[in-house]
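Why do we care about 3D structure at all? Because function follows from shape, and shape follows, mostly, from sequence. That is the central idea of this module. The next example makes it concrete: a single protein chain, its amino acid sequence, and then its structure expressed as tokens.
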Amino acid sequence: MTDNSQFVSPVKRIAATIYDFFLLLGVWFGCGSIALWINNGEILHPVAGASIVIISAWLFYSFFWIRGGKTLGMTAWNIQIYSTNGKKVNFTQATIRFYTNILIFLLAGLPLLQIYISKNNMAINDNLSGTNLKLV
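And the structure:
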């Protein structure tokens, strides 16, 4: 397979993430409403609430990455995710990428600077998951 990698700057990656964050807010409101309804209006335990947030975000990203190779935020910024082995992004790759992205978020995005020093313009989440981003 030919190398599809194109430089997708950290700024574009972060912009797509911010766009998707607003979509996730809607998903979280929906999930929270259903959880409250199931729990008869009682506030959930914080661990249960955090679990719902993480699982729903993971399902959101995994669904879009596996199904079409991009989320709505990625579409707005003309970014697509692909597997470096030439196949569609699989469930394991999406999961590894999602949890690595959480780590990147907790470190204030600093690991994204690896893009500038790596020879193939890949960040840590790209390397660990065997995926990459390209401009479409």
